[in-house]
Amino acid sequence: MRTAPPRSVRCAISPDADDLFMFRALLLDLIPTEGLDLQIVTADTDALNRMAGGTADTDVNAISIAWYPHLAEDWQLLPHGGSVGRGYGPIVVAPRALAPGDLRGRRIAVPGLTTTAWLVLSLIIDFEPVVVPIVPPERVFEALAAGEVDAALLIHEGRLTFRDHGLHPVLDIGQWWTDRTGLPLPLGGNVIRRSLGADCIATTSRVLRASIRHGLEHRDEAIAWLLSRGGVLQDAAAVDRYLGMYANHDTLDYGEDGRRAINELLRRGAAAGLVPEIGPVDFAP
Questions:
Q1: Superfamily of domain 86-181
Q2: Of the listed 70, 80, 156, 214, which one is catalytic?
Q3: What is the pTM of this model?
Q4: Is 70 in the active site?
């Protein structure tokens, strides 16, 4: 009896530690894939959002939650794979001490106009966004040092390393969000193409969840692997702290409050005219 060939599922994720942690078991062939051939590529956050919204030939895409309203017709949000901040999140930093109110009207570097970080900061204050891609990671620090921008909104590992560059924290938008909503801040997630069909979506979702679970159950090995690849975070303690923030039990499942937070973020964004109105999010299984 002939065995059916593996079904190809193309995945696009960021090269950051949390996404690599989630997909490590698949990148290294450590778990069964239920007949799927998962092909994994990386791109930065803003590029990933635009890939999902354009003609990129991917089936699973990491995205900013804020970008999901632009994609909902063709993509479902997976119930796992999210980066969630509980009382913390992207942070605005500056070369000198500023109060949050001092940011009004300032030129602030943002990682893209499709990102959750940009959306939440836009809900907080009026400012002039200046897009500075997060790859290479030192570019935003160079822009600050050169006076190209007055402040910068940092996501991913830069959120932990800014003090090494002599910068001052101004505003943690994750703390702002939680103070006002009582909810965690959903930053990024994974979406899957509706056109794959219910069976393939369910299978892919199970496999991706299994990869996340494997990472959580083999955390030390995953940290050692991440360090061996090089990157912004140079020691185990820093990687451990970062994963504790953005690759944890919330990554395995958003949970009830995480799902409510996603809907509340998109509701507020739509009310402010910053994203399309889509109503309640329907999650993949």
A1: Periplasmic binding protein-like II (3.40.190.10)
A2: 156
A3: 0.94
A4: no
